[in-house]
User: What shape does this take?
Amino acid sequence: VDQTATVTTTLEDSWFWDPENNVSSTSSSSKKDDNESPSSGTELTTIPLEAPASESEIIERLRRQLNETVQQLKKQQLENALLNEQLVQVGRENRELNENIEELDRQHEVVLENLVTGKRELQEKCTALEVQAKHNTDEFEAQLGEMQRRFERLEQSYTQSCQENVKLQTETEKLTTELERIVCENVEAVAALDGQLNEMRRERTELNESYKTLQKENEELRLKVVEEPFETVTKVGEDEEVILLRTTIDDLTQRLEDACNERDNLQKLTAELDRSDHIGRLERDIGELQNELRSVIIDNSVQLEAKEKEYDEKLAAMRQENQTLRESITTTENRAAGDEFDTRLHELVRKLFDLDLTQLDELEERLHTLKDADSKLLALEKKMIDSSKEINFLKAENSRIQHDKDTLNADLMQYEKECSSLMKNNDHLIAEIENLKCNKLETINENAEDSIVVLEKQLEESHKINRSLEEEYREINCKLEEALEEKEELLTKVALLEGNQSEQKLHSRELEQALSIARADKDTLERQLEDARLSERQHTEELNAELESVRAQLTTINEDHAALVHKLQQLQQSSTDNLHTWESKLEALQGELKAKEIELEQVRESTVSSQHSDTELEEVRNRLQSELTAAQEQYQMELEKQKQTIDSLAQQKADLVQLVTTKHNESVQYHAEIQRLNQLLNEHNEQASQPCSECVSLREKVQDYERLSDQIQFLREKSDILTTNLMTEQTNQRLALQEKQELLEQKNSLQRDLDRLRQHLMEIEEAHTQETVELQQRYDETRGKLASLEEEVKKSTNALTSASIRANQQAETLQTQYQLLLQQRDELNAKLSSADDRDQKNQASLTNLQCALEQFQMNKERDIELATVNIRKDLERARSREEQLRGDLKLFQQQLNDAKNGLLAAARISDQLEISQVTVASLKNELAKRDEKYAALEHRLQETEASQADKVEKMLVKNLVIGYVVAPNASDKQQIMKLISTVLTMDQAECIKVGLNRSQGGGSGWFNSILGHASGPEGSAGNYNKESLTEAFVKFLEKESAPRATDSSSLLNIVAPVGSQHAAQAAAPLSTASTSAPASSGGNMATEIKPILLPEAMLQQTTFQPARSSSSILKDILSDS
Assistant: This one.
């Protein structure tokens, strides 16, 4: 028992006899085993013929044979245990397959429910959208009519606005001319300021020239002082004066340097202040002028708008009166006999109330644009409906793809489980085969060899199955990826369609807003018409008052114009006063500049005393030249100014060179004098060494010499002081050069700012001039409009006086016409009320028809549900058949348990096992076919639902209703009503409500006949000529819509005959019909295997014929009748 348990545990996952795809191989192997089984049974008892031996040898042989038989019996028992385990595994697989089928049934039910709900929702949405579309079309038609009326009414106001626009243009032209004049005056003031600045610059250049001349004179004086003979050595007073002069010169040089620095700073500050102040004040003046101009323009625009509104209202009233007068004139023309009077009236009317005929084209164009807009709205609504349908379709596809994805995932999981189990079984089988080969090499026989061959074949088949499953797994993965990509594409499409739908909704909202605005305008126009009707009687008095108001407005406009002119004059005076103040300030600054320039000239005289400045000045010059070249490349507009600065630097260099040469000459002269004094000292010493009678004079000379030596030391000290001063001056010069460079950079930046500000000012001036020109043009246009209005008012007053006389004469005729018009209005109101009643009746009939159609659709859905119920019943029958098959499998197990009695029974059980494998394979094939048929049924269900959704055409129902209404006899009406009831598939209660008794009719609806209650074709053909028209039509529909079965032979009938060990076993033929479960045949299963059958409902595929059109059905009926 323990051994059998271990064998069962190892072979629970065995799979090698699962011949789903290789039935032929298993059948061939079974045939081979059947053919070889008798020989294997005989070989167990065969004894080879040998020479007679002793009894001990015979006993030993018999014992050996007994041992061999015992071993063979043990092997057969093991094989039987293995086969039992295989049977258990086959039963488990069948259970799993049944569970999978139940899950598929559940999923199918869920899908059908979802489809039904989705279909109902789509039908509801379609009906709602159709109602909305109809309502929208009615509203749009009404709105188009209103818009046309509105445009007809707005023609008059448009002509009036055109005339007023012309007048306003004349006034604006006048204003623009005045503004141009103001701008010209401002430009002249700016030009005068520029001239003053140029004069200031010229004066500055003259001061620079005078400064240069003074420098030259100072240098000449210094040269003269240096070149004086050195004979005044003895003159102590003159030397002291020279020393004092030099000290004063040093002080003056320092002061000059300070003054130069201050002058430069002052120049920069003054320039910056002048520019910034001037620019700021100019900008302020311009801003004030612009603000004043804007305020004036705003005031004028407000006044003009108010006047335009008043004129619009007045002109609208005038036009309405003119229209009434024209209508009265036309009526009087028809009645009047005199042609001359008519021509005069025509001329007067044309003179008084001329309208631009050219504006009719514009109005027609506007009507065309409105019609185009209406067509665009309709197209947008259609697009909205189509897009909503597409979105719903895409959502349905998305749900379907999601369902397919889920099913594929489930299949994948099952395949993975099967692959894993197959791999485990494969490993177990390989291990078992190796164990069998190792343990049974000595005691193996032909039957065992055959079984090993079968096992090896099954292993090969299992490998093939494994590979095929792996390939299917890969294909399913590829399909999954493709489905995911399709899903993503569909989601993107859905997003795009939703975005388009949102845009279309926004556009529709905008159009609805525009329609609401148009309706509001319509209401306002109707109110204005009512007000105009009330103001017709008072219009003559209001015209005089309007003329007076127009004159008063003209006077106010003239006063405003004079005030504007006065303001402009005040602005000009303020600008001139500002210019005078600036001129005085500039003169004061010029005086200060002159004083500073004098101080600078004095300071520059002291900057020339430097010995080593030549090299530094050359470096500075080179540096300045490089900077100047860069500046020339960057700023081409500043070439002239840079040239002036270069000339001034060259002059300074020349001055410095001259000062250096003078200092060098002075040092040379000092050196010569020192040498001369040394010679005199040597000579004096030689004379002192000789005896001299003139000792007194020599002593005096010695004193003079000592004095001179003191002076020389003093001069040397002075020269040392001068060298230190030169070094300090050089450092100061370097600092000054650095400051100069910084100042130049600041100057460049200021120049850039100036250029930018000038450009800004030019742009502002250009904009200002343009605004002034436009204002002047508008002013001129308004002036012209006012003049034309005055002329028209004068003409209208003259015409009104003549027209009032005639109007009084024609008042009586107009009153009579007014009464006639009132009568016509009452008649038209009565006609309108009757038309409204008819419209309401038509709407009621439409609602009734819609209800009937909805009821028809509900009946169709009910029929489809009944069909689905029948299909489910067929599935339940298939399940019951599967339960029968399970019972058959149990019987197989009982047969296998009974076959454990011996080796012969074991061989037969092995054969029956192979047969059971074949049956399992056939069952799996049948399951696959069922799945295919199930998918085909689902597809056909969807097709039938799609085809039966809108099967009844509107024309057929319309023709039947018209025939019923037009039918002269009650019998014809009764027959037509029966036709309508059959077409609309009414119930018994509905037929009774209508007045029909369907109990004697031709049965239920055509769709119920599809499900299997129709009579045979022969009986229907026999009684066809005796029936009435309605019954013939019903029979025809039932015959055409009956399902057509397609025979399919997909079942195997496997019979295992009763025989001995030598009987051959073969596959059974195909069976055709069996519905009862073989539960009572338990005792006979040891001799016979029952065939496995399926119900006919699963074998016959119901194919629905496509829906025929109403015209073809009626033609067939008429031809039969």
In short: Confidence is low (pLDDT under 50) at residues 1-52, 229-235, 998-1027, 1045-1107.
